[in-house]
Design brief:
heterodimer; A: about 325 residues; alpha/beta; Rossmann fold; 2 domains; six-stranded mixed β-sheet; four-stranded parallel β-sheet; 8 helices; about 15% strand; B: about 100 residues; alpha+beta; Ubiquitin-like (UB roll); two-stranded antiparallel sheet; 7 strands
Chain lengths: ~325, ~100
Amino acid sequence: MTRYESLEDSLGHTPLIGLPKLAPAVADGAPAVRLWIKMEDRNPTGSIKDRTALFMVDAAEKSGQLQPGATILEPTSGNTGISLAMVAKVRGYKLVCVMPENTSVERRQLLEMWGARIIFSPAAGGSNEAVRVAKAIASENPDWVFLYQYGNVANTRAHYETTGPEIFQDLPSVTHFVAGLGTTGTLMGAGHYLREQNSQIAVIAAEPRYGELVYGLRNIDEGFIPELYDPSVITRRFSVGAEDSVRRVKQLLEVEGIFAGISTGAILHAALGVAQECVRDGVGADIVFVLCDAGWKYLSTGIYASDGDADSLEGQLWA
Amino acid sequence: MTNLERTEVRIPTILRPYTKGEKVVGASGTTVSEIISSLESDFPGLADRLLEKGELRRFINIYINDEDVRFMGSLEAPVKNGDSITILPAVAGGQM
């Protein structure tokens, strides 16, 4: 079915694409280790966050929290804001986004294009600061609707009800699921669903490791763990730096012709590490990982240029 | 262990007051727990910033070669020659 009544209805059902050239070679007679990429750029606004945004807005409408003409408030580094801005425009809400100032210019332009108002939070402290500022604004504006993707179970449910089932339906032999760790919604929702189908499926988190600026807390007690996070859903967790992420994003383009955003490079790095372990151990695997979005929104960082490297991401929130 | 076999440990900005501002320090040990004890003997007070009631503090993440030790046995996770260790505070990050 590829005909839809509206843009919102075209959410999800994204392709799962094999990467035969990127998958590591195995010895003759050894079981295959395959890599599969879930193309989340094929969503209405071009990122996996469309799932989160639509489910959160639907839930808030259903509960009566969101009334016609209301203002929605959300901390975001870009994609969730862009998704919410689209839904807000279509359904007649206003949107205020709190976004760290060290994000790419494309993300600001897209948010403004869809009619969102942006409040910038300081670069130092990164997303932590955006969350803190958004919480403060929410308490000062009790009539605004604070959906709060880090703690909103509709975020997890979006992936439990859509992303996870889509993967399992397309590839029942899936052995590993690798996704980015931000709000943790993708890993918690899809990971939980997949492990319910087959408890042997490994759920692997790849979190971006930024420059020091982002970890500039005044106090260790200012650390942050999303309310949605349940470590029991996860098997392993990797921290991936900008250099490895950029190298992998270029490799994906070079070897398989797929143009992904930078965070996908971090996820691919973890997926390839796991794939190589499977080859070493002589076990077959069907490793699914998530392409969060395409690279368009990150062109201005310069990393895709022939001489572009991770140095240009210093101090930026690239995922 | 000789000095040559000391494990590199990356220290986050917030804990560098304990390491006289050093970003990377050496430590000895075959588990995360032993590495922390080794750090404590060189930099008194540091262990208390990493541990609470004998467990890793909630907002402290430790990685061995980029992998989170909480999924590798936590404080008992094995450390081998040539491994590198990174300590980071837990912050909001990733796609949001």
